[in-house]
Amino acid sequence: MLLWLAEHLAHLYSGFQVVHYLTLRAILSVLTALFIALWIGPMMIEKLRQMKIGQAVRSDGPGTHLVKSGTPTMGGALIIVAITASTLLWGDLRSSYVWLALAVMLLFGAVGWVDDYRKVVERNPRGLPGRWKYFWQSLGGLIAALALYALAKTPAETELLIPMLRQVSLPLGMGGFLLLTYFVIVGSSNAVNLTDGLDGLAIVPTVMVAAALAVFAYLSGNVRFALYLHIPYVAGGGELVVVLASIIGAGLGFLWFNAHPAQVFMGDVGALALGALLGVCAVIVRQEIVLFIMGGIFVLETVSVMLQVASFKLTGRRIFRMAPIHHHFELKGWPETKVVVRFWIISLVLVLLGLSTLKIR
């Protein structure tokens, strides 16, 4: 929106041309999203508290979590508002990728909102039934996959890039691309949701991964950088930098209120939306495997749940004291803040490993 305005004002004063610079708009997107989150955060938290939209705590979980009961949840709506507003202000609204990313975030956020609303407001412990939850997630993932396949301009945009191997990629064909994209978006969405269980645990790795993906988006959207680094050139993909930058600002703003002891929880509305948004951005810039590396904490949390369920169904025994795995460490005696900070450190290391694949080829 402001880019369009600057283009018109540039005819009157050339100084407005500076808004064309992607790096400047990315910085402004971070600051705008951060300001919006900090501005509306207290009002939204108070409104949630008045509506008695409070978190229910599992009776079989760590005893230290009992004090969290009643803490406002569905705070992920704060993140979605900040990301949407910042992107609309500083993004190039002629970009199909920008609109697709926002649409995926809003659709998955809506699924999470319905699930949270039924659990917290209607006091239905099942929330949105699993079959309907996965139906809408699957529908969103498949629609996004079809849209991305239709938008692809070169074969490289539908191939699976193998990191750390120069110019090595696997042709997927239409079926393979749709299947991969579906699993990346839906899988990433649910993985972030499973990680969201402790104060600040999910949002900081999300911010880190978004920052790293912004680097990939910037480089992939520049034909010279892409050629030099042997990564696919995605025309228009650079505009995702503004979207990913808004995640950083909104995430940091949310962390202001979500830091221990949390004043508000993200809820499914935020976790499902953020995970799907990271997934679709990774697909656009052809970094699905790198997302798997950088989001290793999300993967670990998901695998721990899968192993726990499989083990209990097959043998009647549990591998972990509780899943997802962050609760396992809590039940072993680790304080919540120690679990969170150590997971942040691991995430930082994994993100740096993901970034290193740009040069290790």
Topology:
Elements: H1 2-9, H2 22-50, H3 76-90, H4 96-120, H5 130-151, E1 159-161, E2 169-171, H6 173-195, H7 203-220, H8 223-229, H9 240-258, H10 267-284, H11 288-294, H12 296-315, H13 325-331, H14 336-356
Antiparallel strand pairs: 1-2
Helix pairs in contact: 2-3, 2-9, 3-4, 3-9, 3-10, 4-5, 4-10, 5-6, 6-10, 6-12, 7-9, 7-10, 7-14, 11-14
Keywords, separated by commas or semicolons:
two-stranded antiparallel ribbon, globular, mainly alpha, 2 strands, 361 residues
Question: What does this entry look like structurally?
Answer:
A two-stranded antiparallel ribbon has the order 1-2. The protein is built from 14 helices and two strands, in the order H-H-H-H-H-E-E-H-H-H-H-H-H-H-H-H. The model has no long low-confidence stretch (mean pLDDT 91). The protein has one domain (24-293). Helix 3 (76-90) packs antiparallel against helix 4 (96-120), helix 4 (96-120) runs antiparallel to helix 10 (267-284) and helix 7 runs antiparallel to helix 9 (240-258). The protein is mainly α and 361 residues long.
